[in-house]
Amino acid sequence: MKLDKLQHGLLYLCLALTGCASQPALHVQNVEFGGSIWSTNQRQAGVIFQDWAQSTTLPGGSIWTFGDTFIGRPQPGRPPQNPQITGMIGNTIAFLPAGETNLPPRLSYLTNALGMATNPLTIFPEEPAATNRIWPLGGISVGSRSYLFYSMIEKTDGAAPWNFRGTGAGLAVSDRPMQHFTRLCPDGHWQFPVEPVQVIREGKWLYLYEISAHPKGLILARVPIAQIENPGAYAFLTGQGWSTNRAQAKVILREAYGQVSVVWNARWSRYLMATSSDFSHPQEIQLREAARPEGPWSPPLRIAIPEMPGKKTSLIYCTFLHPELSDDRALRYVATYCRTLAGEWELTNPEWLTITLAP
């Protein structure tokens, strides 16, 4: 991490360009589309439809986080359907034991006394329950503790499904992954300076990726692992180094929308990034790679997502790589993604695919 001034200059010259010429291009050897991850375990937990599906590896397995989760009682032997919906939860979690690599994954949900999927995060009494809900962000395990960043969402009067706005990001912690998380309030405030969709660990640092509106694009923050609960310890990558002043953050990748997922490719000793679609390319996911968390990131490898029979996809979103299901040595990576369908209340579940890269 210690770069001299010349190295910094070369780094930011590369960031200003669309990737350094020395970076190898990614090539796909094979792609297999597996369909929805919805299965018996979702049915048993009362899950009908949900999105997000990000996983965080921790000792003994991985924790999967989901966003808007529509619950009810799916009928045995039948796929999930809208008339079965009885309620909605803004955030649910499930556990996948280590070594479980079957697809779709056999997830065990955090449930309430009735056996229904339940929210691991709770809004505070002063937060209006009628308008506020919590969406998951990136997570990380530190020792025996599991951390989950989250967004506080406020409903607006706009047209669905875009009738919401974010009011800030916070951090929650649990001593055991499959229990309720405690929202942290250092100095009496729950808001943290970064809203990370992905958190990775390198050395003594955690690196946090955020899709930012100001500046527009992907920005990067970091914090010492031991200081994760201290909002004042977070620093942002600027054109000159790192600063705790968020206003100085510089975009490291302009073409990043909605979510990003970053994992370590041990075979190549490089990072692999998956990003979701934008409205110019609504039915694809993109892969990039880089030697460092900050990039520069290679030009995208585009993977087209096929249409669902009889449906019209408006947008592919929530693309996440799952290292616990992947095989670095074989360059075979499992990812999930979600889709927004044209039409009112056309709901789906995350879908999985496998991507095998060419050596």
What does it look like?
There is one protein chain. 5% of the residues lie in helices and 43% in strands. With 359 residues, the protein is mainly β. The protein folds into 3 domains: 1-31 and 257-335, no CATH class; 37-192, no CATH class; 195-252, no CATH class. Strands 2, 3, 4, 5 and 6 form a 5-stranded antiparallel β-sheet that branches. A 5-stranded antiparallel β-sheet has the order 11-12-13-14-15, with no helix packed on it. The chain has a 4-stranded antiparallel β-sheet with strand order 1-22-21-20, with no helix packed on it.
Query: From N to C, what is the helix and strand string?
Result: HEHEEEEEEEEEEEEEEEEEEEEE
Low-confidence stretches: 1-24
Q: What's the mean pLDDT score? A: 91
Shape: globular
Distance between the termini: 28 Å
Helices, by number, come to 2
The radius of gyration is 20 Å
Strand content: 35-45%
Structural class: mainly beta
Q: Give the tally of structural domains.
A: 3
Percent of residues in helices comes to under 10%
Largest sheet: 5 strands, antiparallel
Number of strands: 22
